[in-house]
Each structure stands twice: as structure tokens, then as C-alpha cells.
Amino acid sequence: MLPMTLAAVQFDPQKGEVDANLDRAESLIRSADADLFVLPELFATGYFFDSTEQAHGLAEPAPDGPVIRRVEAWARETGAVIVAGIAEREGDAVYNSAAVVTPRGWLGTYRKTHLFYEENAHFAPGETGFPVWTVQDRRGQSYRLGVMVCFDWFFPEAARTLALGGADVIAHPSNLVLPHCPRAMPVRALENHVFTATANRVGTESNGKESLTFIGQSVICSPGGEVLAGATETEEAVITAEILPHESRDRAVNRYNDLLGDRRPEHYG
């Protein structure tokens, strides 16, 4: 397999300014050349909502909403796969989701399993589990893509479930405010022998009562736990790394040990 380019997009969305956020994300995507782009959590709507009504008013159905349709156009025009954090509405429920979009269109949506802070007031927890999709790079080479969203990283079971499901790459749209994740993601990559791409945002948002400051530091990690690319705490940037996704599949630690094969889940309960 020839190398492909993995990209994480870090920027400062403005709450409720959907069109402007889409324009900014498009500009950043067009500034880079990649096979897979990962955008932040809730990249088009902003994050720290003033009310549940505001969050629900900004949500859209998948795949028929305007944000996903715009992302589909970017994927079609660039030939890239794009993972984008969205507010997804289905019936009366609203989810903090990530849409997986290919040049052929919307492939599927992951709904965030582990909600953080006031997300619990605005969103329903996801019940999709942790699906893994087979996608292609621009050369037509297939690889397996898993998705988790932001606070999911805090639960090792999330990344492990994706690894057990065959993921070569884990896309990780985020709006991180706690300081720990950029240090932890190399460990998540190492302990599961996968590539990871955490796309965080920067800036500060207020819900009218308090403010959150997002920590940036988007990071791409290798199956060996190396940091392949990283962003600062404050800059808008697209970070990229060339990877061979199938390197994730050889999980031999040495000639006696295999990272997943040596698991003894009967003893973990």
C-alpha cells in the first residue's frame, strides 16, 4: 500500500454562525492536500449552547441537512474522506454526532457515546456503538476507519472497541477543554496499535453564565505511540502526516506476543 495523507483541521468556530463556520472550514480544507480530513466536534454550530432550544434549533437530520450536504461537496471536489462533528436531529432526539462523508456521499454517522458536562442537558447519548467503515484513499486503496468524539477518549474501552472492530485509523473530532487528552492520545494509539487523528478547536465560548476555553493541540499519532504532527494551543491550522494505514494490522509485539491476541477478556470482568 502506498502512503496516504491524514489531516486534522483546527480552527475557532463561532457559535450559531453556521455559514461563516462552513466557509472557514472549507478554506482550511482547500489549503491542504489530504486523503482524510478530520474536523472538530460540532464544527459548524459551535459548542457551548445558551440553551437546549438553541442546540436543537441548530441540529439537522443526517444525511439531508445543509452541513452534511456542504461537506459532501467538499469530499466530491477534493476526493477526500471527511469526518465532521455535527448536531444531528432524528425525530425529537438530538445527538452530538460525527458524519463520515466520502466522495460518493454520506456513508454513516456515529453518535457520541460519552457525553461531557452540559452536553448531558442538550443531547441524547448515542446508542450506535462504535462502528468501523471501510473507505478508500484517493488512489482507491481501502482501509478501515473508526470514529470516536471528544470525551470518548477518556474511556479506554472506546478506542479498544474500535481496534477490535478492525480500525486502522481512528478519527477523533473534539472540543477539548481539559488538559489531558493531547498527552493521552499517543497511549491510546500505542495500546491499540492504530493511527489516531484528534481534531480539536481553539477559542473561547460563553453560554451566558460561564465560559469555556478550548485547548487546541490537535494531534496525529502512530501505532507506535509517536506524535506525527501537532498544533499549538491557539493557532488555526491544518496538521498532516503521511501514513500507511495497514501498518496498524500487524499487532505482534514480538514472536511470542500479540497485542490483541493475548487479551484474556474472561479475566477482565
What is the 3D shape?
A: globular
What would the CATH topology be? Nitrilase/N-carbamoyl-D-aminoacid amidohydrolase
The protein's oligomeric status is: single chain
Biggest sheet details: 6 strands, mixed
**What structural category do the secondary elements indicate?**
alpha/beta
Task: Kindly give the count of domains.
Answer: 1
Mean of all residue-level pLDDT scores: 98
Number of strands: 14
Low-confidence stretches: none
Beta-strand percentage range: 25-35%
CATH superfamily: Carbon-nitrogen hydrolase
Distance between the termini: 39 Å
Physical arrangement of strands within the biggest beta sheet: 5-4-3-2-1-14
Using the 3D structure, state the CATH architecture. Answer: 4-Layer Sandwich
Radius of gyration, CA atoms, in whole angstroms: 17 Å
The DSSP helix count reads 6
Question: What order do the helices and strands follow?
Answer: EHEHHEEEHEEHEHEEEEEE
> What percent of residues adopt helix (DSSP H or I)?
10-25%
Give an overview of the whole structure.
By secondary structure, this protein is α/β, with parallel strands linked by helices. The chain has a single domain (4-267), classed as Nitrilase/N-carbamoyl-D-aminoacid amidohydrolase (4-Layer Sandwich). Helix content is 22%, strand content 30%. The protein is built from six helices and 14 strands. The chain has helices spanning 18-30, 52-58, 66-78, 119-122, 156-164, 181-192; strands spanning 4-10, 36-38, 81-90, 93-102, 105-111, 132-136, 142-147, 169-173, 195-199, 202-206, 211-215, 219-221, 227-230, 237-243. The protein has a six-stranded mixed beta sheet with strand order 5-4-3-2-1-14. A six-stranded mixed beta sheet has the order 6-7-8-9-12-13, covered by helices on one side. The chain has a two-stranded antiparallel sheet with strand order 10-11. A hairpin with a 2-residue loop joins strand 4 (93-102) and strand 5. Helix 1 (18-30) packs parallel to helix 3. It starts with a strand and ends in a 26-residue tail after the last strand.
